[in-house]
Amino acid sequence: MCGRFALSKLPSELIEEFEIHTGKTLPILPADWNITPTRDIYIVRNESENKRDLAIASWGIIAPWSKDSDAAIKSQSQAINARSETVDQKPTFRSAFRSRRCLIPADGYYEWATEMGPYSPKQPFYISAAISAGKAQSLAFAGIWDRWIAPDGTVRDSAAIITRPAVEFLATVHSRMPTFLPRDRWDQWLDRSVQDVDEIRAMMELESPARGLKAVPVASLVNSIRNNGPELIAPIELGEPQTLF
Questions:
Q1: Which helix (H) or strand (E) holds 109?
Q2: pTM of the full predicted structure?
Q3: Closest CA to 124 of 8, 33, 192, 50
Q4: How many CB atoms lie within 10 A of CB 101?
Q5: Are 33 and 15 in contact (CB under 8 A)?
Q6: CA-based Rg of the chain, rounded to a whole angstrom?
Q7: Residues with a known catalytic role
Q8: What is the pLDDT of residue 23?
Q9: Within 10 Å of residue 11's Cβ, how many Cβ atoms?
Q10: 3-12 pLDDT, tens per residue?
Q11: What are the tens digits of pLDDT across the range 103-143?
Q12: What residues are paired with 149 via a beta bridge?
């Protein structure tokens, strides 16, 4: 699963990195090293003319049948992640998977070790892209988004991260990981005219899903939602025999 992630980049940086085509001005979300469910996040999606756009949505898909704001928030907290194995079948996700897909940018995400691996259970790790050419690239989570209209007419967009079974070294930390999409698949993933489930599923299949990633143990500061700041992603040393890789 993915229950916390970090993003510190400005909209202007994301617009350049994700090659956004529209010139819409967005509110600036504060840099956040401890993003929690229901919080506002940036997403990259295609608008009605299939032009790439940077937008804001809250993390966790609002169930389409929510009758009021309380029910909407409750449903969100239970739908921050959509399993790749069943995303096309679950009522909350299946419509969005076919026609409202997005990318969710992140500096990195956190995962807590389970008893299945070599590390102490609940030891937090920070997973991010390895630095290339002196610059850290954003991760691009495969995501879906939806739109809910409250009884008072308020429009609320929400999004979820698609997860998959963890592979390679990430599987030694946790059994799940986000589904990542490389740049050469962004156009097809965001294309709202592509609605064949088998074709969409094929986009999520990568030869090496963990390629270019690194994982480092971090302090338990991230466990509290009150803590925030770059110190949360600072690597720590683990005592023997719990050394990474």
A1: strand 108-112
A2: 0.93
A3: 33
A4: 26
A5: no
A6: 18
A7: 2, 111
A8: 66
A9: 17
A10: 999 999 999 9
A11: 999 999 999 998 666 788 889 999 999 766 566 789 999 99
A12: 155
